[in-house]
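Lab meeting notes turned into a lecture example. A postdoc, R.K., suggested we walk through two folding results consecutively so the class can see how the record format repeats. The first protein's sequence and structure tokens come next.
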Amino acid sequence: MNNFEKEAVNIAQKWNEEGFNKRDKTICVKYLHFPHIRLWDNKFSVFSKQEFLKGFDDQTEKLIKEGWHHTVTLGIKSIQSNKNKVHLLLTQSRRDKNNNEYHRFETLWIVTKIEGKWGIQFRSSFLNASSQVSGQQL
């Protein structure tokens, strides 16, 4: 694995562990690029920073209602890359407070380097969960 792939993997891990799992908006935003794009249920959602932050608390409530406690990254690998863009394939596991898996899914993340900063710009998941929050749909 080359250095830019390592950087992209590191960004993905930090986003999940320090941001998403701790429900820390500041950390999540730090590791994203905007506009941020999600492909879910065959629809594109495009988020500005403000839209992402606006939906964050709603997503937290939905996660709690579905029994979520944390998400474990079971696998992460680079499948395509160059010095400014890395495609990552992740296997994620949503877990309850007893660490029981209740949902496992594959997700493709595109991590880009813009103005010297690495950030997640695109996510496409095979996720069917109540916690999905939509931005502007295209």
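The second example is placed directly after the first for contrast:
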Amino acid sequence: MKSPLTTASPSDYTRLDDNICVHIFTASAAMVGVCLTVIGIIRVVIAMRHSDRVAEDMLAVNALLYLASCLLSYWALRTRRPARNYRLERVADVLFLLSLTLTAISASYMTWAISAH
């Protein structure tokens, strides 16, 4: 058993990176579905209230960012080159965090836009 003060081996980092990559892959794939569902709901609200379409466009971009994150993390899981894996995982990480931020912005905008009408 390792002491808490010992440093992790490179294989520990690889396992951790793979674990993070799997979580990014599954979460971003699920979020693509969430974005598409909300776009459908917004279409109904737009048809009923004749609102603007900014929220729908934001969610469409959001879904594409989640999809890109999902595909990059899948590619990182499939690659056997550690350097490529690391780069792909970092880009997928950044895209996922950007998508999460856009999700919060979209939700805020939709809340204010719908409550204003």
